[in-house]
Design brief:
single chain, 449 residues, alpha+beta, YbaK protein, 5 domains, five-stranded mixed β-sheet
Length: 449
């Protein structure tokens, strides 16, 4: 591909609305452009990377005999009505009608020997947060149970977790197989349950499914909201004072906790969610009559699961991990181009002729870009680094001695290669360097510095 014909609108300045480094670099590199808040258009460079990531996923899926289909984005209401989800979803489901007035939608997607004491409701005026409750009642926050209300397809869910822990909503959604679960709004909760959110609790609450984290399973005599303004219950105990529908792991783990597998202390690192796995079971296959004939000749519902991989999220996560002060550093397998040929001047016939000749050879074997723009060398070099192309081949002043410069994206110094007797030696060097190319090693050296 010739750069003069390629739409890659790079920017030198940092966008004002860029929140993280990957966002900034993808805009500056001409990979994406903002269409609306949270909505982006993928330009040729970005779209090319997306397709390469997609192809890797596709190949891995085919290796385990998966088959790919393409379904319409707009779907008829009937299949959503049959599964009961047409009315379950709220305003987050985009619905529309066609010219025949038919409904459609956009497809979505510790142990204790402590004796149990008698429950008691106590006054806690203007006390709402865990810290406030702990200070007012002079108890540790490990003796308080947080009660969080969520609304999903099947109604209200009350999630219980120990006061010093944070709830992991991804775990909660995965447990119920419901990605629509969202925390209830204060006004909505007050209208539904007649109480402010700071005083919600499991004792006496109705029309909810109660799920509790394992962290409270063996707790005794703990504190919960009193389901009444300025009131809390103390000496609350499971089974005696309320029932839990199910226990599961729904909390964020903390640094230093023992690993459940090896018992070594856990470390805390930052991460980016790029995929999800959750089991649907037979809930929807039964509703939609999706059955198969088993070996014993009986009709049984499919066991379903969702295994989602965010292609665009993966793109952003890679940039967040692999970049430096000059731009992106793409892995070779997904880089928009593997090699870029840069003649320092389009006015010097010798350079242009050699660049053209080399481009014809390289594009047969590599995803090659030929920067044939009439721009300064520095401008071209900076764009190549910003875009993150693994290998640069520079035709410059060394050409008077029959040499070109070859340089990996992260190398400080280039290697000179004699091409006066042809390109054979250069092609060997290119292949060797691309085989050795590993941006992860380079980024680790930056982190150490």
């Amino acid at each position: 591909m010739r750069m003069s014909k390629y739409y890659a609108p790079t920017l030198k300045e940092v966008p004002n609305d860029a929140e993280i480094k990957s966002h900034e670099l993808l805009i500056r590199g001409g990979f994406i452009r903002k269409t609306a808040s949270g909505v982006y258009t993928y330009l040729p460079l970005g779209f090319k990377v997306l397709k390469k990531i997609e192809q890797i996923v596709r190949e891995e899926m085919e290796n385990i005999d998966s088959q790919e289909i393409l379904m319409p984005i707009i779907q008829p209401a009937e299949i959503w009505q049959e599964s009961g989800r047409w009315d379950d979803y709220g305003p987050e489901m985009m619905k529309l009608k066609d010219r025949h007035n038919r409904d459609f939608t956009l497809g979505i997607f510790e142990e204790s020997d402590e004796l149990e004491r008698e429950i008691e409701k106590v006054d806690t005026p203007n006390v709402k947060t865990i810290e406030d409750v702990a200070n007012f009642l002079n108890v540790d926050n490990t003796k308080i149970v947080k009660s969080l209300l969520f609304k999903g397809r099947d109604g209200w869910i009350l999630a219980l977790i120990r006061g010093d822990y944070e709830l992991n909503i991804s775990k909660l959604r995965a447990y119920f197989g419901d990605q629509t679960l969202t925390m209830g709004e204060p006004e909505e909760i007050k209208n539904e349950f007649g109480v402010e959110i700071g005083f919600i609790g499991p004792v006496g609450i109705e029309n909810v499914k109660i799920v509790a984290d394992y962290s409270i399973k063996n707790m005794k005599n703990f504190v919960v909201g009193g389901m009444e303004k300025d009131k809390h219950y103390i000496n609350v105990n499971i089974n005696k004072d309320f029932k839990v529908d199910s226990f599961t792991d729904i909390r964020m783990v903390s640094k230093g906790e023992p690993c459940p597998k090896c018992s070594k202390p856990l470390k805390e690192i930052k991460g980016i969610e790029v995929g999800q796995v959750f089991k649907l079971g037979t809930k929807y296959s039964e509703k939609l009559h999706a059955y198969y004939t088993s070996e014993d000749g009986k009709q049984k519902p499919f066991i379903m699961g969702c295994y989602g991989w965010g292609i665009s999220r993966t793109l952003g996560a890679i940039v967040e991990q692999l970049h430096d002060d000059y731009g992106m550093i793409w892995p070779k397998s997904i880089s928009p181009f593997e090699v870029v040929i840069i003649p320092v001047s389009m006015k010097q016939k010798e350079l242009v002729d050699k660049a053209e000749e080399l481009y014809k050879i390289l594009k047969e074997k590599y995803d090659a870009l030929y920067d044939d723009r009439d721009a300064s060398p520095g401008f071209k070099f900076k764009d190549a680094d910003l875009i993150g192309i693994p290998l640069k081949i520079i035709l410059g002043k060394k050409m008077k001695d029959g040499k070109v410069e070859v340089k990996l994206r992260y190398e400080k110094n280039s290697e000179e290669v004699d091409i006066s007797n042809g390109f054979d030696e250069l092609l060997k060097i290119i292949e060797k360097k691309l085989n050795e190319y590993d941006p992860k090693i380079y980024v680790k050296t930056i982190d150490k510095d």
